[in-house]
Design a protein that fits this description.
Length: 358
């Protein structure tokens, strides 16, 4: 730390992204990316003609992408904002809407804590239940801004929209932010509620179900006043937050519904396979509506399992954090990748216990 860093930031613990190894080929099941390439439509439109325009700034209103997102969700364009990943929209939301403080779960997306600290916010941490689930009653009449990842990460648990609605009704004076990064793998979206409740902001991403993590595209859907506030943040921070290639990638990516359906259903199939195989190997696997599973072995502790898989060229995510230290979060890849994970797991447990587990 230099002597120039403002004291307000000296104690911040930054977010630790999952490993992105550059010099060894791993089966990468650690950062919830899609194992499938972007839609062929995306690849076809990121062409040399567009690259040759990179000397010019991108459209600061990203209107082509906003229109495509609005059309996809059946809302008007003034109800949509886009950002450099949903992380950026989350950052703007923590910056803009949390004067009265913020509430989120003890086990949830790690960036919420980082943003709350970065902006010096009063923070209420709400423990998940014993079964690692969000209890909606804990969020009623709460008196501050609420952030809920639904489905939650890293647990995979999903609240039905009816329960989100109860939280909205009981908090008319507070903004409720629903982070739907993983909703397309079996969750229920709260987007239809934005017309009914003016205290709802839904945030989503192109990084998971749209196969575009590297393009860094997130979106927000809410009433026009909230979208206007988010744009105020953006234009006070980084007006050209989406680059030319990402605007094109997102636009053609979201239009290709057939490819989206195909990829998400393959992931769901591979998830069901993974869950049933892990259970046969004496794992507890939390019910997941996402492109990952959160699981703990009855035979090997979380860190050891993570390290043994890494030795065998498979990366999963292990969090050195209270309550979840024995779990690993495994991204769902292709069926072939998941089958290799299961084989490696069987080997690891066999090596540890010296017996073949069928
Ligand atoms: N929300 C949740 C719950 C996530 O897990 C992630 C991915 N790490 C994000 C938001 C951010 O995704 P991105 O910035 O890639 O859109």
């Amino acid at each position: 730390m230099s002597r120039f860093l403002s004291s307000a930031f000296s104690k911040i613990s930054p977010y630790t992204p999952g490993e992105q190894p550059q010099n060894r080929e791993y089966i990468k099941l650690n950062t919830n990316e899609s194992p499938f390439p972007p839609s062929p439509e995306v690849v076809a439109h990121i062409n040399s003609e567009e690259a040759s325009r990179l000397n010019l700034y991108s459209d600061p209103s990203a209107s082509m992408l906003i229109d495509a997102v609005a059309e996809n969700f059946g809302v008007s364009a003034d109800m949509v904002a886009v950002g450099n990943g949903s992380d950026e929209i989350l950052a703007f939301s923590f910056m803009a809407f949390c004067e009265k403080g913020v509430a989120f779960a003890d086990v949830t997306y790690g960036f919420y804590r980082v943003y709350a600290d970065l902006y010096g916010l009063k923070t209420k941490i709400i423990p998940l239940t014993e079964k690692y689930e969000i209890n909606p009653d804990d969020y009623k009449n709460i008196g501050c801004t609420i952030f809920i990842a639904n489905p939650n990460a890293p647990t995979g648990h999903c609240l039905p929209v009816s329960e989100i609605e109860e939280i909205l009704v009981s908090n008319p004076g507070n903004l409720v932010v629903i982070d739907e990064a993983y909703v397309d793998f079996g969750g229920e979206s709260s987007v239809p509620l934005v017309n009914k409740y003016n205290n709802l902001l839904v945030i989503g991403t192109f990084s998971k179900s749209r196969n575009l993590a590297g393009a860094r595209i997130g979106y927000a859907i809410s009433n026009p006043e909230i979208i206007c506030d988010l744009n105020k943040m953006k234009f006070s921070f980084n007006p050209y937050n989406l680059n030319r290639l990402s605007i094109i990638a997102g636009t053609y990516g979201i239009k290709d519904k057939e490819y989206f359906e195909k990829c998400t259903s393959l992931i769901k199939e591979a998830r069901e396979y993974t869950v049933s195989e892990l259970k046969k190997l004496n794992f507890e696997v939390l019910d997941s509506k996402t492109n990952f599973v959160f699981a703990q072995s009855g035979d090997i502790d979380g860190e050891e399992y993570y390290l043994s898989l890494k030795d065998r060229g498979i990366l999963v995510r292990w969090f050195n954090k209270d309550r979840i230290r024995n779990f690993v979060r495994i991204t769902i890849g292709t069926k072939e990748q998941m089958s290799l994970l299961i084989d490696a797991t069987r080997d690891i447990i066999k090596a540890k216990h010296g017996e073949d587990i069928k």
